Amino acid sequence: MTPMLQRSIVRSRKGQSLLEFAIVVPMLVILMFGIAEFGRAWMTRNLLTGAAREAVRTVVVWPGDEPAARNRGLALIPAGITANINFGTTTEADGTVTRSATATNSFTFSIWRIFPGLGSGSLALSSTAKMRREYTP
To answer: Which secondary-structure segment (H or E) carries 87?
Structure first.
């Protein structure tokens, strides 16, 4: 094989590697940002669940009236999260009445917009926690 032919083969392989790199890197970048966004959304959902649990737990053990318990539970919810605490009763088949409290949190999660035109840029997350009232006024 002549040296001139060897150099042209090496040059064509460099071009091939560059082309493969140019095709693979955008896919890897999109995958990396997708994993990071999924992690952020999962963490936010866990924060919403924890906040709903803490709020409803505070409400069910609070030995006061329902408005005071609701205010105390809502005070535990971080700013920026829309929260609602409701009280209800459930009648069992044997006729016993169980009082309960339900906390529902919702949050609009904004997604990083890497590429314009892809997706809406936000995701609605919500979480609900329900517990029996331990104190019956």
So the answer is: strand 82-91
